[in-house]
Prior knowledge:
- By secondary structure, this protein is an alpha/beta fold.
- The protein has 2 domains: 11-220, TIM Barrel (Alpha-Beta Barrel); 241-367, Lyase, Ornithine Decarboxylase, Chain A, domain 1 (Beta Barrel).
- Helices cover 28% and strands 23% of the residues.
- It has 11 helices and 18 strands.
- The protein has an 8-stranded parallel β-sheet.
- The longest helix is centred in the middle third of the chain and has 17 residues, at 170-186.
- The two termini are 19 Å apart.
- The mean pLDDT is 97.
- The structure holds pyridoxal-5'-phosphate.
Amino acid sequence: MTRPIEALISLANLQHNFAQARALTPGAKIMAVVKANAYGHGAIRVAGALGSLADAFGVASLEEAVELRNSGIDSPIVLLSGVFGRAEIREVARYGLGTVIHSVEQLQILLDTTLPRPVDVWLKLDTGMHRLGFTVDAFCRAAERLRAAEQVGNLTFISHLACADDPPAPQNQRQLARFQTTLAALELRADESLSLANSAALLTRPDMHFDWVRPGVMLYGVNPLSGNVPLPAGVELRPVMTLRSRIIALQTVAGGEAVGYGEVWRAPGSQATSSRIAVVAAGYGDGYPRHASNGCPVLVNGKAATVAGRVSMDLLTVDLGDNPTAKIGDAVTLWGEGLPVERIAEASETIAYELLTGVNQRVKFSDA
Ligand SMILES: Cc1ncc(COP(=O)(O)O)c(C=O)c1O
């Protein structure tokens, strides 16, 4: 047996989640966001499974886009952060990619370059997040220059929401209003499109869907709404990644004895009682969060158990509680089917995005 940690990727669940997105917004096109190796799931695998379903793919860099093109994905692909230097814009055209333009520098690079063919441009307005995008006046000036430029194919106007995961937050309304007011001033042309919604807005704000929605995390089966806000009625997301390993050792620990680095967990009871501890081949060196505290849930043979003691690089320890019959070789689900990754995120004070993208190459990936 080799080291048993593995990530099983359910492409059926991915396609199910995509269908949920499609049903929520039958009139809009869908850009499936597959940046960061498809949120850690494997970009080629994911884009392959969505290739005939998604209207476009969103990535973070030219390298990510070229990886997909070279694997045979011929759908539109958009660089969501645009180009990082002058040399990249010709490659964008050569590979038939689209690109966000969020800054004057990027605009100038495009306008200064003679391209073999026009590229689709996604011009980004900063509606209040203050991360990427043009201010209102600069955006309107940039739009006019792009409308007149021979380097530009389709033109889409785009912005990004800071608080979509918190639907009642007033920022959402403010950003929508700024988007709409700015675009009204621009007098949209018939062949120009709009895009604002990520997963959370796709799920909760039909008035933000416009022409293109850009779901990422929901496609991987994660509820993006914060504070355990439930999904809208009728929507069901299924986990795409199941991170799984096996028990490689068992310990019987007397009450009062500690387990693991720093002795942060102690078996309850007295010397006369004992706890069964399973040692599992998974650790922060695989991408499992070290901050998963005592009590973080796992499933041992499908039954609930909890992390006991500090997670180490290659191993974690589990209090088997009322499941004392577990044995070496038994399967341990760390997240995924039966155990939403959101619960691990909560227990380790992070977000599911970070956990999914953090699973690294020590972990074997295969189709579920
Ligand atoms: C510009 C842009 N659009 C869409 C998304 C997808 O967001 P989510 O995964 O929350 O759906 C992202 C992800 O961060 C993004 O940066």
